[in-house]
TrEMBL record:
Signal peptide: 1-28
SUPFAM superfamilies cross-referenced by the UniProt entry: Kelch motif
Residue spans crossing the bilayer: none
Keyword Cytoplasm recorded: no
Name of the protein in its database record: Galactose oxidase
Keywords in alphabetical order: Signal
InterPro entries, per database record: Kelch-typ_b-propeller (IPR015915), NANM (IPR056734), TAT_signal (IPR006311)
Amino acid sequence: MAELSRRTFATSLAAASALPLVPGTAAAGPATSEWTRLAPVPPNSTAWHPAVPVGAPYWRQLGLAGPIAGVHAGHLIAAGGANFPEPAKTSNRANTLGKVYWNDVFVMDPGGSWLPTTFTLPNSIAYAACLSTARGVLVLGGEGFPGGPNGSALAPVQKFADVFYLRFDPRRRMIEQERLPALPRTMSYAVAGIVDDVVHVAEGADFYALDLAHPGGGWQSLPAWPGDPRSVAVGAAHSGRFYLLSGRSQTAAGWQFHRDAYAYTPRQRSWRRIADLPWCVTAGLAYPTGDGLLVLGGDRDLARWNLIQEQTALRDREPKNSPGWHEHNDVITWVYDHHTGFTTEMLRYDPARDSWRTAGHFPGPPPATTPAVLWNQRPVVVSGEIRPGVRTPEVLRLS
């Protein structure tokens, strides 16, 4: 029997005033309603390294890629995530810390105000699969550092197999963690969905399931989809099926971006290939709706991606900091600096017709690498990455 444990790891709310709801809407296209901008994610508060200007007058939340995000007890929870917080430094310029992984936890009340919290996670973590449940925000895998914030230039990033609920107790105003059986292997950038109280998670070539009503039974290995292994895919559960969309994989010939999509029916233990996406939605978001799926964000500029990968391979063949190394690194930096962002069009999938259609545009820079959250049945986008190395602190809700 797998051991389960519960742990309360943060204890108090500060006495400061809550951040107010930020008014304003932006049109999302003729096939959608309007998006409301909620209060942006508050600044990180853990001054863990001198290179991070926490507490400086100009210090702001830069935004977080791969945050934990979900809803419990009517409150929105955002935690962890990764960014590049050093001033004048980016993902491709020399910096002290590399990519920083955080462990701060933020809680927004039902009225749209961030509560003044001092919550932290035991580990810094990003790029986990996240799902909102009545038991808490279910967090699966991810990567980061044990013990608190750290940077990829200071220590090797570790992948996790941890699975836990993250929940908010409104009465005691506390964040709690309840551990579940660990995944069969470490993984980050996985996707997950819950069908009939069973969570399904896919990453690489693996597909696993855990009965949340009886977690002591442990994880079960299931037949994988009839397509290539992949990571950074998009997933969601809808109407008794788990959907796996897009993703990318690395082959001997280079990176391959996928447009194929699959639906898994647990009661039949079978996969079915569904209509291909119009374009790849790698690292995007998929929301279950009353009539299917709403998909937004993701990266489909394959030419730009391949150019970056080509120059990266050429750079890494040169001695570090040699003229040849700097030549290729400058090209990569130039491409990053002129990156125009991810896919703006939103897609809807109709299961009855097995078809995709465009459904307007996302208001502003579209996100990637952030979980899809439903709050009172409304899609919510919490922070995320808007181009390589660049994050946004915005939180938007679809009316």
